[in-house]
Structure formats: structure tokens, C-alpha cells
Design a protein that fits this description.
The structure holds 2 protein chains of 2 kinds.
Chain A (H helix, E strand, L loop, with lengths): L1 E5 H11 L4 E4 L6 H12 L6 E4 L3 H13 L4 E5 L1 H6 L1 H9 L5 E6 L13 H4 L7 E4 L3 H15 L8 E6 L7 E5 L3 H7 L26 H30 L7 E4 L6 E5 L3 H14 L4 E6 L1 E3 L3 H7 L5 E6 L9 H9 L6 E6 L9 H13 L4 E2 L8
Chain B lengths: L24 E5 L9 H5 L5 E3 L5 E3 L9 H5 L5 E5 L3
Antiparallel strand pairs in B: 1-4, 2-3
The chains are: A alpha/beta, B alpha+beta.
């Protein structure tokens, strides 16, 4: 049933319906409303989860690690500096192959302190072995929690996942979201069946040490699981469509890409603005389309290549910067299209909460046609 | 040994850690100048030197880390450390 709700509350509802046994989180702006609402649900008896209050994000994810190893469906949420504090534990969770799901309310990294949106926080954990989803709107953010749990708990995957949605732009926005019923979700998301778990009667240890003879093979196995996740996520998204009528059968979404000669590539909420801008550019006769990435890890190289087949040029919008190089999405797109002859130019945009408007999209489209790119877009040169 | 998902391990004993893989130098017990004094068995931190029926001492190379203490302490200078090619 459609309900006008805040993005954070819709996500909290999705978590409640996913029935996690253990929640451990530490409040931090702009993630706070999610965990506040979950704490209320537990206190009011609407959700039978163990809610562990902790003194830091390091402890939050460590508690989730233990709970997941003990065989529980486990949830956390964080952002920015909180995610940075989880850095060490993130690698351990992935290496121990524990399917923990965590919502990231994307926010810029300090310093300078900024509580506003960009995607630097999760992008900086791209190499940690976590699957990363990026939602365009609150309906998708909600749905990706069900799809996420279903995909990562599959024994072919067994990896943790971040469901990333833009801080404030989505977390604090009220819009209609279809929140499914318990029966509907139970029909789609079965109870968690751990591959192995901590058991005093049959003890095991997780994440033991590997000598140089074994370490590389363990890393290879994690990468193989990430590759298999491509197909498992697509399958989970298709089956989600059969159950709920909203189709997520692809890791990329193409918008007005038929006959497009210029394509934009982006992730997250800016794609809503881009679609509106494209409609206006199309009405002026410009052949522009959008390819939106729903996952950044695994990176959907094959699907992206297929979606961009036939275009002359690509403008990538990056809400992050790998300092000393380029935007993290731009680098991936350049790699995926290497040797194709398609021009790929990268634009660093919207860092620390700067708005990206329709006129900016039109300006970037004009820049890529002129061959100007691989740059920060929209710098206020008067303050430099 | 095939890999376990998540690098899990069952409880075990130190015997399961085949520390011989750490070795760069391998002790050569020549049994030439050896007086069978037994210093090597006492000094070995890994406890992997044994005395056999011929009363000479032998290192267990499955566990010997190649620390070289046996060669350093042997009063008869009967043990030589040699670089091991793998």
C-alpha cells in the first residue's frame, strides 16, 4: 500500500519486514532517523529483534559480525565518519563471508566537516568486499533491502552489502512509497539459513590466519563470489518483480538510450534530475540518454558495455573524487569501454551537498560534445 | 587442504601448524663432530629435535622454522645452517 513517508522511515519499515535477529547501530547524521525508528519499533514490541546499543560504529559492526557468525540475520546503518570508523571490521566481515546488510545514508567525508550529501563515504570502501547498491529514490532504497538480503544470503554469494541512498536528498524526503505486507515479504524472503555458524557444541573459529601459500586463494574466492553475485542479484531482482510488480532484473537502468549518441552515466538520486533534463534536451532534438548504475560492486561491466553500445561519447557524473586521479565511476567506465573508441569524460559534481540542477546536466552534455571533461564541474573560481 | 569458506577452522593443536614453511635456512646436523651432549634438543624453541636409536639428534623439518639456535649453541659446531631453495 502506498504511504507518504520519509525515506528513513521507509527503510526502517523494510528492515522490520526483513526480520533481522540482531540490530547494532550508532546514530549519526543523516542516518539517525532510520535507527531511531528501529529502536522505537523494538521498544514498542513491533519488532522482535535484539537491539544492541553500542558506544561507536566500530563496536556496532563488530557486534553485527559476531551475531552474523552465530547465525542471525543482522542489520546496521551508518554514514560518512561512522563508516570510516568501521573500516577494519568491513574487511573482516567480507573475509569471513558474513552476509550482513547495512544502509549507508551517503554523506561527504571530513575534513572539512560536512554533513551534506556526496558518495565519498561508501566509494572509499569499494575494495572491502562489500556489495554496493545505489538507489535512485526511496521506493528503490526500500526494495533493495529485500533484494539485498535475498541475494547476499544465497550460498553462492555469502558477502555483505551496503544499500546506499543519498543523505537528506532521500533520507529526509517524504514521498509515496509502497510498503509491502509481512505476508508478501515472507513469501519472497525466506528465513536466514547460515552456511556455517558458531556453536558451542561444535566449535569453529572464523577468519583464521592464512600463510602466503593460502592468502591469495582466499582473496580469489571472495572475488569469485563477487562475480557470481552479478547473476544472483539479477535473479533476485527478477523474482522481486514477480512478487511485487516492480522489476529490478538488471544492474543498470537505461533511460531514453534508443538512438542516443551521447550518454550520461551516474548513480543515486541525481539520476531523477538527469531524467528530467534529458526529457528537455530530447525536446530540443538532442540525442541524449542515461545509463544508471544500480550496483557499483560488483561493477556491471558487461551490462554497461551493452547499454552503451553504439554511442559516440559518455559523460560520467561522479559524486566522489579519488584524489590524485579521477572519479571512481569514471575510472570504471573508462576501463569497461577501453578500446571501444567511445569517448569517456568524467565530471566531479555535487561534492559536500552542492546541488546538481537540470541546467548543470545540460551544460555537462554540451561540454562532452565539445570534448571537454575529466574535470571538476561548477567550481566557484571566485573563491579559489 | 581445500579452502574453507570464510577461513574457518576447527579447534586444533599446534601440531596442525606446519611451521617448516617459514624456514629460510635449514639446519644440517652432520653427525661428524657431534658429542651427543643434547644441547640442541634443550635449546630448540619449537621442540622439534629428537634423539633416535643411534643416539644422534635429528630435526623434524615439518616444524623446524630455521631459527638457527641449534647451530649457534652446539658446543661441537656440528650443525650448519644452509640457505634452502624452494
Amino acid at each position: 500500500m502506498l504511504k507518504i513517508t520519509e525515506g528513513s522511515f521507509a527503510v526502517a519499515d523494510a528492515v522490520r519486514l526483513s526480520r533481522p535477529g540482531v540490530i547494532a547501530a550508532y546514530p549519526i547524521t543523516p542516518q539517525t532517523h532510520i535507527v531511531e525508528r528501529l529502536a522505537e519499533m523494538v521498544a514498542d514490541g513491533e519488532l522482535e529483534s535484539e537491539y544492541i546499543t553500542v558506544e561507536s560504529e566500530f563496536s556496532a559492526l563488530s557486534a553485527c559480525l559476531g551475531a552474523s557468525a552465530a547465525g542471525s540475520r543482522t542489520y546496521s546503518a551508518t554514514t560518512s565518519q561512522g563508516l570510516a570508523l568501521m573500516y577494519e571490521v568491513c574487511f573482516n566481515v567480507a573475509g569471513m563471508r558474513l552476509p550482513i546488510l547495512m544502509t549507508i545514508a551517503n554523506r561527504a567525508m571530513s575534513a572539512p566537516l560536512s554533513i551534506w550529501n556526496d558518495q565519498q563515504d561508501s566509494i572509499s570502501l569499494r575494495d572491502s568486499g562489500w556489495i554496493q547498491f545505489y538507489a535512485e529514490d526511496n521506493q528503490e532504497a526500500t526494495d533493495l533491502h529485500f533484494i539485498g538480503y535475498r541475494a547476499i544470503e544465497d550460498h553462492r554469494v555469502l558477502l555483505p552489502a551496503m544499500v546506499c541512498f543519498d543523505g537528506y536528498i532521500l533520507t529526509h524526503t517524504y514521498e509515496p512509497v509502497d510498503i509491502p505486507t509481512e505476508e508478501e515479504v515472507n513469501g519472497y524472503l525466506p528465513p536466514f539459513k547460515p552456511y556455517q555458524r558458531l556453536d558451542a557444541a561444535d566449535p569453529i573459529s572464523f577468519g583464521m590466519y592464512a600463510t602466503p601459500e593460502y592468502y591469495m586463494e582466499f582473496r580469489y574466492e571472495i572475488d569469485q563470489a563477487m562475480q557470481r553475485a552479478n547473476e544472483v542479484i539479477i535473479q533476485a531482482g527478477k523474482e522481486f518483480g514477480e512478487h511485487f510488480g516492480r522489476e529490478y532484473g538488471s544492474l543498470v537502468e537505461s533511460y531514453r538510450m534508443d538512438d542516443a549518441d551521447t550518454a550520461l552515466v551516474a548513480m543515486g538520486s541525481v539520476c531523477g534530475t538527469i531524467k528530467d533534463a534529458i526529457d528537455e534536451l530530447r525536446s530540443e532534438g538532442k540525442k541524449v540518454g542515461l545509463v544508471r548504475l544500480r550496483t557499483y560492486r560488483p561493477f556491471p561491466t558487461m551490462e554497461l558495455k551493452k547499454a552503451l553500445d553504439g554511442v559516440s561519447r559518455v559523460a560520467v557524473l561522479d559524486r566522489n573524487i579519488s584524489l590524485g586521479s579521477k572519479g571512481a565511476v569514471g575510472l570504471e567506465v573508462k576501463d569497461a569501454l577501453y578500446g571501444s573508441g567511445i569517448v569517456v569524460l568524467d565530471y566531479i559534481v555535487g561534492l559536500g551537498g552542492r546541488d546538481i540542477r537540470k541546467k548543470d546536466i545540460a551544460a555537462i552534455t554540451a561540454l562532452v560534445v565539445q570534448g571537454k571533461g575529466d574535470m571538476f564541474y561548477g567550481l566557484r573560481t571566485e573563491v579559489l | 587442504m581445500p579452502l574453507s569458506v570464510g577461513c574457518t577452522a576447527r579447534p586444533g593443536k599446534a601440531r596442525g601448524n606446519r611451521t617448516g614453511a617459514w624456514r629460510t635456512f635449514k639446519p644440517d646436523f652432520k653427525h661428524d663432530k657431534c658429542t651427543k651432549c643434547g644441547q640442541c634438543i634443550l635449546i630448540c624453541p619449537e621442540g622439534c629435535v629428537e634423539q633416535r636409536e643411534d643416539e644422534y639428534y635429528y630435526p623434524d623439518l615439518t616444524y623446524c622454522k630455521g631459527c638457527g639456535l641449534c647451530a649457534e649453541e652446539c658446543p661441537a659446531e656440528d650443525v650448519e645452517m644452509r640457505k634452502e631453495e624452494k
